[in-house]
Fold these 2 entries.
Entry 1:
Amino acid sequence: MPDLSLPRSRAAALAALIVLAALLAVLPFLTEAALGRSWVRVLDFALLYIILALGLNIVVGYAGLLDLGYVAFYALGAYLYAWLASPHFGLHLPFWAILPLGAVLAGVFGVLLGAPTLRLRGDYLAIVTLGFGEIIRIFMNNLNAPVNITNGPQGINLIDPVSVAGLSFGKTQQVLGLTVSSAHFYYYLFLAFTLVTLFIAYRLQDSRIGRAWVAIREDEVAAAAMGINTRNVKLLAFAMGAVFGGVAGGLFAAFQGFISPESFNLWESILILCMIVLGGMGHIPGVILGALLLTVLPEALRYLGDWQRIAFGQVYVEPTDLRMLLFGAALVLMMIYRPEGLIPSRQRKREFHAEDGVAEQEQASLYDTRV
Amino acid sequence: MLTVKAVSKHFGGIAALQAVSLEVRAAEIYGLIGPNGAGKTTLFNCMTGLYTVDAGEIRLAGAPVHNQKPHRIVARGFARTFQNIRLFANMSALENVQVGRHVRTRAGVWGAVLRDRRTRAEEADSRRRARELLDIVGLGHKARTLAGHLAYGEQRRLEIARALATEPRLLALDEPVAGMNPAERQQMRELFLRLRDQGLTLLLIEHDVKLVMGLCDRVAVLDYGRKIAEGSPSEVRRDPAVIAAYLGGEAA
Amino acid sequence: MEIFVQQLINGLVLGSIYALVALGYTMVYGILELINFAHGEVTMMGAMVALAVIGAIAGSALDLPGLLVVLAGVMVAIPACMALGYTIEKVAYRPLRRAPRLAPLITAIGVSIVLQNTAMLIWGRQYVSFPPLIPQNSHAILGAHITDLQIFIILLSLLIMAGLWLLVQKTSLGRAMRATAQSKEVAALMGVNVDRVISATFLIGSALAAVAGVMVSAYYGLAHYYMGFMLGLKAFSAAVLGGIGNIGGAMLGGLLLGVIEALGAGYIGDLTGGFLGSHYQDVFAFFVLILVLVFRPSGLLGERVASRA
């Protein structure tokens, strides 16, 4: 059930779609003309974060499992890409071979991570997944000796850019008479992946599996009593979310050309979580809005430095330092004043304003130790 | 249909069930009554896999089901409702019933994403069956309403529809008419009889003694975790132990 | 053998600091069933505030004895952290007391980010070093060394824990806390002012965190805006190890985790044939956390939580 507003007639819907498609197609050129090329890169990142946020939304928004280690899957995808397409091991596989591998690897890790933790109650799950995320990061940081696997804190450099039919996305090229920069190429690549992710997210939402996820989020005991194998269905949510993380990681590595453990710290997980919370958990348009806002706003914040310079002649507060502070404050304020997010699904709204957590207490007490 | 043999369950030092045995026959309505705290719901939870049993065995149509996971027991044809209503509050009535179809459908991630012919057929069938069931419990007009927005009696009926969607052979109802008005109770009564006549076995926990006595083919009485009587309603009504424990003045 | 004793000593020192922080987690969890994610940052704030005071006095013309200067820092850090803890509870958690579980956890993460970045804005990204005010006398036992500071940390922690134990077991506030942990509703019916008890819990936990923050920065000789994160996670793991909600458990879990970590870091190289080194020290806490949660979720002394079900 796509929640996008439904225009009255088919023709109107089609027209809206064509306009939207045309807008998305020329967006990087408009952006470059209006704001400069660095903003095209911001667009690229926005798309990447939409993929990540939609992936995490499956775990947190649909199935209600608070996963704070999501960035671990992103890291796995990125490192796999770097290992298989850089001078680090001397391998140079094409991106279309690596990305599926990254997806599978992340999915497998999703199951490995999920299996021991899924019996835990929500808040414990959060801490344990956070721990897993940190473990992965610590290993990435230290697996440079005695065998150099990750190259430690320096990270891996000179990662191959994506190239399609001999056309490298890594540098500016002339295509059909147009000057197309690397950021433009990646925009279209990421857009394609975003659309696929979006498609999958919608299809899953409105399916037998999607309903099972939501049922577990709503009432795990009742879900089990209705014949849902809660453990497997939760593992599936973990794995699905992880797959998107893994793919996004591979894209990130190719796009940046360089990765290091610092790109995959806890705050990255939290940033993605913020996107979901801000936009509206479990609601796809909300999640997209959240991802867009949180990638674009921090960039806009950079202008704060310029304004300070103009107004006071010097920069008192580094805008990048303010970024996380504002995110943190936004999380708190959102949870207190608008927990359902900026554009919530009709369901979540009611849920968050429900008066009592009785059902949840019962859930804790009714369930025996197993399952 | 269902055989419970010497089932015991302890919570800490408290014996919630002590060697309870009972036998539910196919296509009958079997009532389980007893004062509050007698262990009725505990027994339900043991039967449906939410609790493990400490001793004894439970068989459904001959196959052991005790200490199995809840979803396996549902797959074998044993569905239940909850005394304290556990719907998926933020899903529509239709979706709630469709969740009940989970165990009788197969589509996985690939099916969901690709929406191949089989998945489409399965989805259409699931929706059609869910609508039928909503009609049966009289909620056809509320298919798109969120379960949490339904009135109390409607929620109880929705739980029954959701349980029926799993295609049970045996349906266990935990106080299905609690909080309903007399007209609704009468409707439910007719529904239960109709379901039985279609070959479904019903197991009923109920406080409404009049309903139990008028509806059930056989009744068991629990008190302090023990079965103190079993038999036809009229037999049980005359049982001195039952009169002492539960029915008290009302039966005399 | 020397390595073993030395690591045991190091572990006990670290462990007693973990225990102090773990107490804050466990008391709040016992009463609110909330993981106060921001508690680690309160500890960090304690260290930072104390260091700011210590640095200011040490840098001034006053020529006070070193220990007095440190004491002054602690005396400022304790009320500062208490005020911080009190405010966090009031602003970020109290409005969400009836909300779904996920909500307060997300706010807690938010508060933690705010504190961390505020500290970064105030004190910068670089390490702040602890002035060499504490004499580093070292004693030899069984071939290993223990410094005055280490002895002091262990003793002071034990003293504080004993005090807390008495507070919880013997005073009327302690009784009210225990009653509230059992059931907020019943406690309220019995005339306990639940809001006051919760505030008191945050005040006590934050005071302990302040002390622990100063200890840890004195021990390592530095403080950093990021230090609260790892410390908090480890202390939380310690609380879970001991049995969350259980005060004795937090103490035991803290000490145990410190020892596990120190011994693990000391021997991991030998155990893995040199493949993994001591810089994996931080991983142990997580493995312990995960193992405990999987195999014994109620923790070592966690009968209270288990019996409630």
Entry 2:
Amino acid sequence: MLATVIGFAYQIADTFAFLVLASVGLAIIFGMMGVINLAHGEFIMCGAYLTVLTARAGLPLPVAMLLGALVAGVIGMLLEYFVIRRLYARLFDSIVATWAVSLIATQGMLIVVGPSIEGLKTPFGSFELAGLSFSWYRVLLPIVALAILGGIYWIFIRTQFGVHARATIQDPAMARALGVDTDRVYALTFGLGSALAGLTGALYAPTMTTVPTMGSAFIVQSFVTVVVGGADVLLGAAPAAALLAFIQSLLTASYGQLIGQMGLLITVIVVVRMLPKGLSGWMLRRSE
Amino acid sequence: MNTLTRALKRLNGTQTLGRGRAFWSSFAVTAVVLTLAPAFAESYIVNNLAYFLLWPFMALGLSLIWGHAGILSFGQTAFFGLAGYSYGVISINLGDANGLTWVAFAAALILPTLLAAVVGYFMFYGGVRDVFVGIVTLSITLVMETFMAQTAGPEWAIGTARLNGFNGMSNMPPLTVPWFGGEALVLEGTPFYWFVLALALVVYLALRWLVNSRFGNVLVAIRENPDRAEMLGYNVRLYQLAVFAIGGALAGISGVLYTTWGSYITPSSMGLTAAALPIVWTAAGGRKDITTTFIATVFLLWLSQTLAVRGAQYALVLMGAILLGVVLVAPDGLVLPVVRAVGRLVARKPRSDTAADARAASQEVA
């Protein structure tokens, strides 16, 4: 009995971490600019590759991870500057453009580095509890996920960039009139979202095989979390991930992985039907 | 007679490019050349031509959904894959005697249409809009890929048909036409090519008729402004549902033809990369026109195949680059500018009388 409860709680925490980490980068860009970044998975892939390659070259793992996030962020800002910025007036086209980038990045990586590279070992080992074995690293991930959410909260509430960003979301024209450089805000937001995707890839690099197509392992979950969470990342991401993690873990534990995934999809359709603006939209309406 | 001329006029309505004599004569020449192709081309080339002609259905469906009705569907491959797998499962179970393959063929078109109708109902009547339609449709095709990829075990079988997980299904029988008394006609090689060609011509003309009908005009009205269309009394959701189901059926045609062509279907035909290709073709065709989408699809398929000799990755990188380039600098697609440029070149001929003719012709082509 105890083992079942602990195992289930671990499962929920693990899924929660995965959903939060898979979706924050996507959610920030979507909430800010309305753009669904279909190259999101490729930023994750980029972070994972840099982490694995630099860590194997001798860099300490945390430094390698930060480097992965940093490079993904820089690439994101370049993408914003050269592509997204030209398509502000055509939202659908900017989404299609990110898909083109995704295709180029995945297949380009296949050409450059080949189908797979040697991965990293999961650090920290494991421990036993109530007869079950758990990986320390995977227990840490939910805590890291919460810390990242806290960090985003701090950035958007406390820093000047955050104030400018929130002003730009509310009314870009008025923000510009008051002297906010909205182009810079968009570029930084896109960079921040990409860096977070890169960090996600970096964090999961020691736990999964690094392949050019690894981004697609994250993409459905990230879509689902963003849609359920709604446009306001600060408010929506955590409750959405918690709700979905509970549903997926419950279904996976009872009926297997596939039903778990389909449960996510059905939850999305139900949520969109009942709460078109997601959980955050519902919470904002309730508080008014 | 009156209804016939009216129906023919529909083919030449304002929602389609290529309305002049020059266009229709080159259309006729192309159709005749393609029909006679097996007489002078090797069987390898005929097989290839069949391959080039079986994909545009999916692209035409996307052109209808995205270009004409303004709905962003990223998951046409879900219907493609469902059709392929349906044909595989049903034809393997029924066998190919007595023309039973056509039962599988019909079922493989009905099932994706139904899936599209159900998904469309939940989306459009459920208030899913804009980018969320893209997310939901893409998620559906990716989940279907995940599902099919994990069906490797022997417990995943429907009747006698094993789903075979990641490796996909193979060895389904080709389409056969029972012949009076004699042996059944197997649709392989040249007969299959003629079948695909005939289907392509029929569907192309039918879609030209459809987009110029009242239905097609309402779709464009919805694309331009859904709220206005609703205020004018049109049932916007019903139109969206209908066009989405038609698009699903068209993707289904491609799926079932592809499955019979190569006698296999794999989960990766519903994956992220596969799902991007219809977007590339349709965008390169300029989305809003049936003819340019058709031409762009066939051209890009030929280009991919030529490049794939060096590895599929190179062709896919190029497809991504083409998509990016089209979105950034040529939102009207690649076909129309080329046709216009050729038209201008022809029009610049020195002799004035032919120049006027040519200019008229180029305007007709455009």
